Amino acid sequence: MGSIIVAVTGTWTGTLSFTASLDGTNYFSWFGISNTTLGTIQSITSNDQVMFNAAGIQDFRVGSTATWTGIAIVSIVADQAASGLVSPATGNTTGAGAFPVSIQNGPVPVTTTLSSSSSSIQIVPIDFVDTNNQSTANLAASATFNGTTTNCAQYSAIEVFFKASQACTIQVFQSPDGTNFDITDTYTVAANTGDVRPFQPMGQSYKVSVTNNGGITTTFLRLHTTLSIVNNVLPRALTQAGALIVDGSAVTQPISAGTLPLPTLAATSTNQTNGTQQTQITDGTHLGTIKAASTAAVATDTALVVAISPNNSISTTAAINTNGSVTNSTTVGTTATTFTAPTNAVGFVVEAESSNSVNLRYACGTTATTTVGMLLEPGRDSGYIPSKGAVTVCAVSSSAQAASIQWVLSS
């Protein structure tokens, strides 16, 4: 099954209609699919791309209404299965001001210009070889070939192919009016190196020049320039090396960690191993002082200030007083005797004297009885108990037993 694609651009008002014929004589409306609405249409009143099924048809036409202003650029492409080459038709029109297009033998893409003042269709190939800017003539040292002005308004790309036996400078000039060439792209091509690059047309006309940079005459030179309506150049031109332009300087910029604007004392590979690495901890300016454990701090050392949340507290314990406070040889019986702790007590040691005849009991936080509390045999002590509360002591039986207590105090 063959297909036909019609692409319409330009500035115009009016209606373009599509017709087809099975016999080349009788024409009827032919519907296609709009790329804008995705619906089937038989005519358009604005720029669009429309695809048609060409199976079985002999001729295909694009016609315009009698009421028309401006110029519509109509590109028609038929594939191999569509019967024919696209050429201007001089046969019957469908009405005043209508310009038919016929498809006959073989696929040839074309651009068709429709104008209300024209009586025929102008066919412009999609790829146009520009002989005005083409040369194979050898150039003497420092000599220049200058192409002539060519209209490029209907095209989307200027394609320049070049190779020569000597290094050459290529210049592509563009003009908005065919007279003043205000845009120039310049690049060089090394000797014996093939090069091709596209340029986006920015005005009405262009021309190409070639200058031989070598010290001798070229032994071969090939300059070939093509205009294309289907090529898209992004950006408008390329770098000297033929690469995309990535910044305003038109030069690709390499990125290297060695050239980045690193801050002072940044953790570079050198500063990570040379012993100068430091950590800024307070306001980003002052450095914490780091010393060996055997080195005493001095008043000039930078302090680390830490704020404690009001929801937290830090408990501290004063240094132990080595003198303490002693209560010696107190007589106790079966009823508990209370030893009240000094206000700065942090612990105690209680002893049953060796002269006792029965065991003693002692308790912290409760009252000792003959059956409650820790037992102490005669001549033994409790060991250090870290408690600062009162201590009660009693004998398990009998009376007149002796107890001593050593309080350990804070400073």
Q: What is the percentage of strand-forming residues?
A: 35-45%
Overall average pLDDT = 77
Q: Total strand count, please?
A: 29
Supply the helix-strand structural class: mainly beta
Rounded to the nearest angstrom, the distance between the terminal CA atoms is 107 Å
Largest sheet: 7 strands, antiparallel
What does this structure look like?
The chain has 411 residues and is mainly beta. The protein folds into three domains: 3-124, no CATH class; 129-228, Sandwich (Jelly Rolls); 320-410, Sandwich (Jelly Rolls), CATH 2.60.120. It has strands spanning 3-13, 16-21, 27-29, 32-34, 40-41, 43-44, 48-53, 59-64, 69-78, 86-88, 101-103, 110-115, 122-125, 127-129, 144-146, 150-151, 157-164, 168-175, 183-189, 195-199, 205-212, 221-228, 320-332, 337-339, 345-352, 360-364, 374-376, 391-395, 401-410. The strands form seven sheets. It has a seven-stranded antiparallel β-sheet with strand order 5-4-7-1-9-12-13, with no helix packed on it.
Furnish the topology, listing elements before pairings.
Elements: E1 3-13, E2 16-21, E3 27-29, E4 32-34, E5 40-41, E6 43-44, E7 48-53, E8 59-64, E9 69-78, E10 86-88, E11 101-103, E12 110-115, E13 122-125, E14 127-129, E15 144-146, E16 150-151, E17 157-164, E18 168-175, E19 183-189, E20 195-199, E21 205-212, E22 221-228, E23 320-332, E24 337-339, E25 345-352, E26 360-364, E27 374-376, E28 391-395, E29 401-410
Antiparallel strand pairs: 1-7, 1-9, 2-3, 2-6, 2-8, 4-5, 4-7, 9-12, 10-11, 12-13, 14-22, 15-21, 16-21, 17-20, 17-22, 18-19, 18-21, 23-29, 24-28, 25-29, 26-27, 26-28
